[in-house]
Amino acid sequence: MSHILDIKTAGKPLNEAEKVLIMIHGRGGSAQDILSLSQYLNVKDYALLAPQATNGSWYPFSFIAPAEQNEPWLSSAVETIGKTVKKALAEGIKPENIYFFGFSQGACLTLEFLARNAQKFGGAAAIIGGVIGEKINRENYKGDFAQTPVLLATSNPDFHVPVERVYATANIFREMNADVTEKVYQNFGHSINEEELELANSLIFV
């Protein structure tokens, strides 16, 4: 079982843009939902790419379930992000001009993809997410982010994402030479707030 590649687009046409934002929706969400958030981000000159998860979910179980329980969907989901990046690269977009925004399950998937493929990207905002697996397999994560700015924002507590995993993810990204900003909101709930969008604009989409 694997995801069917279905990339929704918005913003500037890919062949006219210098920068690309890849947006990854959460469980039960849609590519169109996450694309609609772009109106609050400083990305009017970007091409926007949002892959759609087959059946609305990137993988079936919690992101902190044993990884094998989420296979083969998880590997296919990571591959889907890779194919979306390749679509941008094929149009001549440089890696340092490729940006990421993910929420919840989409934030986890974004962070997992980035940690497995670290290099100099434009930046990433991950709202309520962390790297995937019951235990963190540090051997999976290689490369150098070369000071790519990364925003990790979350609520504490969060029913789906323990704050400890967010902190652990921030530490891994710092070890891999990312410029990490973490922000924890107490009892905010499982959603995106206005300040997180403002932080993304001031740190990532500048």
TrEMBL record:
This protein's record includes keyword Hydrolase: yes
Domain of life: Bacteria
This protein's record includes keyword Hydrolase: yes
This protein's UniProt keywords: Hydrolase
Phospholipase/carboxylesterase/thioesterase domain residues: 14-202
Family named by the database record: Belongs to the AB hydrolase superfamily. AB hydrolase 2 family.
Protein name: Phospholipase/carboxylesterase
Species of the source: Chryseobacterium profundimaris
